[in-house]
Write a structure and sequence with these properties.
Blueprint: E1 4-7, H1 10-18, E2 23-28, E3 36-41, H2 44-56, E4 70-72
Antiparallel strand pairs: 1-3, 1-4, 2-3
Amino acid sequence: MSERFVVTSQRVAGHLMMSGFVLKGVGENRKYPGRNVFFFNNTTQLRQAIADFNQTNGGQTNGNGKAVGCEAV
């Protein structure tokens, strides 16, 4: 399993930090200039927290109707 997990949604990243997950870094989103990506440690607990958040909040979009990307790198 990769060590880093990338979150492209600021809302999801904020929720994760409020839930106690430590932000490991921020970078520029290469796919969408002017937006950020957020790096977290890739853990089972993190993946479960994202799944729970998406289920509770009806999923996330990046503003154009497409699903927000979260991926291990």
